[in-house]
Amino acid sequence: MRENLKNARKAKGMTQQAMADKLGISLRYYQQIEAGDRTGDFEIWDSLEDFTEIHQRILRETNPDREDSQ
Question: What is the set of domains in the chain, with CATH numbers?
């Protein structure tokens, strides 16, 4: 799970659907990016970085101890 991305989205008061809409992508695609299951293209990460004001390298970090990986 990309906890930093999830936390940044929540700090902006946005749902996953609202973020997907802002990025012009499907909800499922955004969910896969946030879950760490897809990488997403550089334009998405550039937009996320601009919107959240957090460097994309930090947003991209995944937590290897996520609960659903057991």
Answer: 3-61 (1.10.260.40)
